[in-house]
Design goal:
single chain; mainly alpha; Histone, subunit A; 2 strands; about 45% helix; flat
């Protein structure tokens, strides 16, 4: 889509979230997504894309905000100086800087849906499942997730992919 171009957005909030960002070139294109999304009372909203200057400014602000999130705030000093938007793009490391430190204060909640696990075990073996199985199984899942996080970090990514998940226990 070009700069300052007329387009349409869906009135439903799940379609206008930053990660989703659905925009449509015409109302007929907007209508195509309705059966799939199953909205209750949607409508198409007229919109105009930003100008090149507005888009560049938004990109620079977003990069600056991300850089501020990555950098810890200095302790015992006044507010940190603002970072120029042009230097933010070049400051982002392509490879991870040092070893990854995982948070220790993550809540130890159950990561498994009990009913689905019990259904699986019953269908597979005809056995019942104790509720006490959920905590140790969640612990195993956490260790798998931690390993996947380390692998993604080692490759310089911020997204854990399928290939990062260890293949232990597969037949």
């Amino acid at each position: 889509m070009g700069f300052k171009a007329q387009h349409y957005v869906c009135s439903v909030s799940t379609c206008t979230r930053k990660r989703t960002g659905l925009v449509f070139c015409s109302t007929s294109c907007w209508e195509v997504h309705l059966p799939m999304m199953r909205h209750r009372d949607p409508w198409a909203v007229d919109a105009v894309s930003p100008s090149r200057q507005e888009w560049l400014q938004a990109q620079a602000e977003e990069a600056e905000a991300q850089a501020r999130q990555r950098m810890p705030a200095p302790t015992g000093s006044p507010a940190a100086p603002a970072v120029a938007a042009s230097s933010v793009a070049s400051a982002a490391p392509a490879v991870p800087a040092g070893p990854l430190e995982l948070e220790d204060d993550v809540p130890e909640e159950v990561l498994v849906i009990a009913s689905r696990l019990k259904e699986y075990i019953r269908a597979r073996s005809g056995m019942n499942t104790s509720d006490n199985v959920l905590a140790p199984l969640s612990s195993v899942l956490r260790s798998f997730c931690d390993e996947a996080i380390r692998r993604a970090h080692a490759e310089g990514r911020k997204t854990v992919l399928e290939r990062d998940v260890p293949r232990r226990g597969s037949r």
